[in-house]
Amino acid sequence: MQLIITKNPTDLAKTAADFIANRIKDVLKKQDRFTIALSGGSTPKALHELLAKSPYREQIPWAQLHVFWGDERYVPIDDEQSNAGMAYDTLLGHVYTPEDQIHVWRTELEPDAAAADYDRVLHEYFGEGNDTTFDLVLLGMGDDGHTLSLFPGTEVVHEKIAWTKAYFLTQQNMYRLTLTASIVNRAACVLFLVAGPKKAEPLKEVLEGDYNPDKYPSQEIKPADGDLVWMVDEKAAALLNK
């Protein structure tokens, strides 16, 4: 695991943008496509807005990216809660990536059917015999220690076989669609972005506390053979034993 601490959220977004641009460049020296799973939330939004501008807009070969999402709320894409909608507004609507290389969760289907459809697409991309899935997965962490739609106390945290799941999250009174740890932990690289003082306590527990994924599901993300990078700002890192 690599821990990178930046001064503030602005520096965090810049450091992440540089990291992503360099990662894409390096990977595309060895293959002709780069698969990335995007995240929702305020911290990724700032990153998206930066990537959509110069110099990243010109540096990154967007036409070679194949875009997925780690999770999604079961809402239409034009709903303000949609992770895909946010990504189009802040990034994908400002760069050129072929539409057939952008894979949104199909929330016009029933929840279980939407999860099954995403599972089918992922297996077509990565196959059964391929040990590695995404080239890069971007993740955030909530104030409660959740990531993706893996919330504390939910069964999906411990899913070991299925790559996708749909389930009703009682505390939010809505369905969530999510990748599971079983596919994310096969990624070549997972990058967590965490900012703000509200994240300090859960971050300390996730990185330095006892293993308790039922309370802190982010602990379940541990790439088997890939890189795990935590990129956090000083306020989020305030309680860590440096």
UniProtKB/TrEMBL annotation:
Pfam families: Glucosamine_iso (PF01182)
GO biological process: carbohydrate metabolic process; pentose-phosphate shunt
Function, as annotated: Hydrolysis of 6-phosphogluconolactone to 6-phosphogluconate.
EC number: 3.1.1.31
Entry-linked InterPro entries: 6-phosphogluconolactonase_DevB, 6PGL, Glc/Gal-6P_isomerase, NagB/RpiA_transferase-like
Protein name, per record: 6-phosphogluconolactonase
GO molecular function terms attached to this record: 6-phosphogluconolactonase activity
